[in-house]
Amino acid sequence: MSAPIPLCPLGRRGLVVSRLGLGLAALGRPAYITLGRDRDLPGERTREAMYAHAAAVLDAAWAAGVRYVDVARSYGDAEVFLARWIAAQAVPPADLTVGSKWGYRYAADWRMDAPVHEEKEHSLARFTAQLAESRRLLGPWLDLYQVHSATLDSGLLDDPDLLRALVDARQRGAYRAVGLTLSGPGSAATLARALEARVDGEPVFDVVQATFNCLEPSLAPALAAAHDAGLGVIAKEVFANGRLTAANTRPEDRALLERLGALAAARGLGVDQLALAFVLAHPFVDVALSGAATPAQLASHAAAATLALDEPTRAALAALAEPTARYWQTRSTLPWT
Questions:
Q1: What is the CATH architecture assignment of 9-329?
Q2: 287-290 and 20-23 as β-strands: parallel, antiparallel, unpaired?
Q3: Each residue of 55-69: pLDDT tens digit?
Q4: How confident is the model at residue 3 (pLDDT cuts 50, 70, 90)?
Q5: What is Dmax (Cα atoms) for the chain?
Q6: Is the pTM of this model over 0.90?
Q7: pLDDT by residue (tens digit) across 252-294?
């Protein structure tokens, strides 16, 4: 039996999370960017079938000690599924920390072949509308509300009325903490600006969620600095959308998987476990998100949540890092499945 998943504080607002969290991006809608997902989900991706599948993974996560769950307005019915599961299991708000996100609208209408799956808008109007939607579904379980994929060009950080609205909602108890998630090669610059954001001298952001894995570790210095400044840090895409798992059959990644496989086999681990342990070995990471799409994947991730890697293994994994621009270019080509 694996060791219990440890709990830790997330940021400065009193949130407590398990070091392994569960993200529902791959479970709340019929299509997502994860390699091998076709084999993981039910053949019939109706809302009811997808809920049953998501509930099974949530059950496995809860049994393993996962106490942080990540959803978003744009993840199809992820908030609906989570709220339904919470009600079915009678989970008290104090026992589960939930983070959701606003800024993207789900636009695929439950279609696999939709030309557009998400539409982005970082406006005060969208924040107000989506907060009401999230609150209606999650109520007192909504602890952390995050700007979804904040970028400098979205205008968010230059909009004083929107920044004030984020802080005002926190102060009146609509949620406990304000966060932002980052994506793309400009993430470090966005995070630097976000750390400066103030409303009447009060820091706007309490938590940052960012892509961090052994192929794309470039944000490590910025995330460490944010953590030192009091922000909680959530690592997402720790498996690089499936590239750091046995499900990766991309010919371009054959050499990568051979190196990872050899490292993992020598230590009696799975490739996914090695990737997760690398992320959690960094002291500035408070919680790493499992994007598990099956209970078996969740169990594998939970077993790796307390693994300690020796320095040679960490160095070997760090040596796999790709140039930042190339990593994000590759990610942009991964299909929705």
A1: Alpha-Beta Barrel (3.20)
A2: parallel
A3: 999 999 999 999 999
A4: confident
A5: 55
A6: yes
A7: 999 999 999 999 999 999 999 999 999 999 999 999 999 999 9
pLDDT score for 2: 65
SS (H, E, C) the chain: CCCCCCEEEECCCCEEEECEEEECCCCCCCCCCCCCHHHHCCCCCCHHHHHHHHHHHHHHHHHHCCCEEECCCCCCCHHHHHHHHHHHHCCCHHHCEEEEEECEEECCCCCCCCCCCEEECCCHHHHHHHHHHHHHHHHHHEEEEEEEEECHHHCHHHCHHHHHHHHHHHHCCCCCEEEEEECCCCHHHHHHHHHHCEECCEECCCEEEEECCCCCCCCHHHHHHHHHCCCEEEEECCCHHHCCCCCCCCHHHHHHHHHHHHHHHHCCCCHHHHHHHHHHCCCCCCEEEECCCCHHHHHHHHHHCCCCCCHHHHHHHHCCCCCHHHHHHHHHHCCCC
Please report, for the chain, the start and end positions of each structural domain, with discontinuous segments joined by +: 9-329
What size, in residues, is the chain? 337
| Token pair recorded at residue 140 | 């007192």
Main-chain phi, psi angles of 201, to 5 degrees: 80, -5
Please say whether the beta carbons of 148 and 104 come within 8 A: yes
**Residues 68, 22: contact at Cβ < 8 Å?**
yes
| Structure confidence by residue, pLDDT tens digits, 200-249 | 999 999 999 999 999 999 999 999 999 999 999 999 999 999 999 999 99
Q: What is the pLDDT of residue 43?
A: 85
Rounded Cα distance between 288 and 210, Å, is: 10
